Amino acid sequence: MVVVKVEMWPQGQASKAYSLGSLTLSLDPDTRPEDTQRAYTWRLTGKRGQTLKSGRIEGHTPKTKGVWDLLLRTLQLAYGYRN
Q1: I need a labelling partner for 74 at 20 to 30 A (CA). Which of 6, 10, 25, 51 fits?
Q2: For residue 27, what are the β-bridge partners?
Q3: Closest Cα partner for 23 from 41, 39, 44, 54?
Q4: What is the pLDDT of residues 16-69, one digit of tens each?
Q5: Is the dihedral angle over the CA atoms 61, 82, 75, 12 positive or is it negative?
Q6: What is the pTM of this model?
């Protein structure tokens, strides 16, 4: 499982940090760890923990495309391509 947390640190002070949301990526239960192409389910949550969007990614190859590619694909599915 990969969890990406987004926080606001007012005036750079970690002690005053508060959550803006998170992204959770989980290996799909039908995917075996030894598979070269994997499927993941994902969920974006808001600052109160509510689900904003969720979905599934198929065909990710973690040995050639790492976690940043997985994150990019997730955000593109959630929000589309932007300038």
Answers
A1: 10
A2: 40
A3: 44
A4: 999 999 999 998 888 877 778 889 999 999 999 999 999 999 989 888 898 999
A5: positive
A6: 0.82
